[in-house]
Specification:
It is built from 18 helices and 3 strands. By secondary structure, it is mostly helical. It has 2 domains: 202 residues, no CATH class; 186 residues, no CATH class. The chain has a 3-stranded antiparallel sheet. Helix 15 packs antiparallel against helix 16. The longest helix is centred in the first third of the chain and has 36 residues. The C terminus is likely disordered. This is VanZ-like domain-containing protein. InterPro entries: Teicoplanin_resist-assoc, VanZ-like. It comes from Cellulomonas pakistanensis. Keywords: Membrane, Transmembrane, Transmembrane helix.
């Protein structure tokens, strides 16, 4: 059982850790895919999940577990000697370890299984590199060799000196067998992943307009919220690192500076500013190729004035951002009784706004949602409209809800 654990626990780490990494990156992946391909591809998202699981599993199999505790004592007891630099040494090892064994026993021996495993470990690399990333056979194979070399170097140097000794054997035979696995995977890729849409083929139809659907509208909202949250968190972390670097204490509770850096700044730049620029769409809507248009002369849809765009933004993501700022109060320096009441009201109003905005999408004309309906705007696919105000190519086609 212990032997099985040695082979299987990194796979479980790969599945759990890889899916967690994929979930954390899902919204950025959706936005990137929408902009790159003009639509979402479920198969390509599945490929991204497979890539995440494989990447984490590869790290778990090759670099984990790491030494812990007293590293000097660990190195004195378990440290590995110099790297094995003799190519094809595994052949002699197999001959030595399987001397006198039958064919079946030889194939089940640890020496043989180790070589086979090292080959199989990099077959998915070649498959994903060639078919998912679109690289050629040579590039896929060379990338497998480069990754294997980095792994072996990391093992042989104790993570480049951090551990103090080699905690795994750096083996040139591992480099050779891993590279062979990458080559085999690259050759098998058209058969194994022949169903995977190619990135270039999807990008070729990027400019084609598509129906405005509730899913696209909702995804735009999610992108806006996640973007503001991630940027705000990153700015707070950067601010705290700066405090540590300059020898200043980190505040026990959120202060006014962190409110400005982590909430007000990202809300202002990412939610309040975009409606004033260009089409007037939020960044999330732009990621989904959605834009607001207002009725113009002759039944056309035109880009709105600055006032109209500002009003629409203020009643949508901008309002959510304002409530986010108010709900983050009180902080030292802004902690009066009135501030506490405002923060409490905002904390209740913000989720209510979210629910109303989400529910309004499928029940509004053209899936335009609350802020569009309140300002008289229509929601259209950005590719179906001229880049500047002017006659539309058919208003009914542009605002028709997707089915």
């Amino acid at each position: 059982m212990a032997g099985m654990d040695r082979w299987t626990w990194p796979a479980w780490v790969g599945v759990v850790g890889g899916l967690a990494a994929f979930a954390a990156l899902l919204v950025p992946l959706v936005a990137l895919q929408s902009r790159r391909y003009g639509r979402l591809s479920g198969w390509r998202l599945l490929g991204a999940a497979a890539l995440a699981v494989y990447g984490v599993a590869l790290l778990a199999y090759t670099l984990l577990p790491l030494p812990a505790g007293d590293l000097a004592a660990w190195c004195a007891r378990y440290g590995v000697g110099g790297p094995q630099l003799r190519p094809l040494q595994f052949v002699a090892d197999i001959r030595r370890d399987t001397a006198g064994l039958g064919l079946a026993a030889t194939l089940r021996s640890a020496a043989v299984l180790q070589v086979v495993f090292n080959v199989l470990l990099f077959v998915p690399w070649g498959v994903l590199a060639r078919r998912y990333l679109g690289w050629g056979v040579l590039a896929s194979t060379l990338s497998a060799a480069a990754a294997s070399l980095l792994i072996e170097t990391t093992q042989a140097t104790g993570i480049f000196g951090l551990i103090g000794c080699a905690y795994r054997l750096g083996d040139v035979d591992d480099l050779l067998t891993n590279t062979l696995g990458g080559l085999i995977g690259a050759l098998l890729a058209p058969v194994v992943l022949g169903w995977m849409p190619r990135s270039g083929e999807l990008a070729a139809t990027r400019g084609l307009p598509r129906p405005v659907t509730a899913v696209r509208r909702w995804l735009g909202m999610v992108v806006d919220v996640v973007l503001v949250s991630l940027v705000g968190y990153a700015l707070v972390v950067a601010h705290r690192l700066l405090l540590v670097a300059t020898g200043r204490p980190i505040p026990a509770d959120r202060d006014l500076v962190e409110l400005l850096v982590g909430t007000v700044l990202p809300v202002a730049v990412l939610l309040w500013l975009p409606p004033l620029v260009g089409s007037g769409a939020s960044l999330g809507q732009r990621a989904m190729w959605l834009e607001p248009r207002w009725p113009g002369p002759g039944g056309t849809l035109r880009r709105g004035s600055l006032g109209r765009r500002a009003a629409r933004g203020a009643l949508g993501a901008g309002l959510w951002g304002l409530l986010q700022v108010l709900a983050s109060l009180p902080v030292p320096g802004l902690d009066g009784d009135g501030v506490v009441v405002v923060a409490a009201v905002a904390a209740v109003a913000q989720p209510a706004l979210v629910v109303a905005s989400v529910l309004a999408v499928p029940w509004s004309r053209g899936r335009r949602g609350l802020s569009y309906a309140l300002t008289g705007a229509e929601l259209v696919d950005a590719r179906a409209m001229p880049s500047a105000g002017g006659p539309a190519a058919g208003r009914a086609a542009e605002v028709a809800p997707g089915r």
